[in-house]
Prior knowledge:
Number of domains: 1
Helix content: over 70%
Number of strands: 0
Radius of gyration: 24 Å
Strand content: under 5%
Number of helices: 6
Distance between the termini: 70 Å
Shape: elongated
Largest sheet: none
Structural class: mainly alpha
Amino acid sequence: MNTFFLIFIGLPALEIFLLIKIGGEIGALNTLALIFLTAIIGIYYARIQGIETLRSGLKNLYQNKLPIYELISGASIAFASILLIIPGFFTDTIGFLLLIPFSRRMIIKLFINKEKIEEEAQKNKTIDGEIVKKDKDEL
């Protein structure tokens, strides 16, 4: 219930508060222009970061490595672009933090242990085989 409250009631209230405070300081039209500008710049950089992540993931696939970080990074870039489309300064700040590779790497390391995931993936490798008899069955 607390998470639901924070996301659906607390976040819009925080965004409205920030919009009123910043709008009072720089003016209503400048605030609107800033919201549109951050959305456009953010989506542009999300596209660039997404393409770089895709290239890195394909490079890892060619080297027979698991592109675990690239998959998580791609999902965080998609989430960042959604946050940048939502009007508001708090969501834009979180979105831009997820777009910067250095801060994205730190945030991902906080939530996910890459070595443990790779270890589990290596443990679960199976080899399929078929038993072939040299003697033919005679009926």
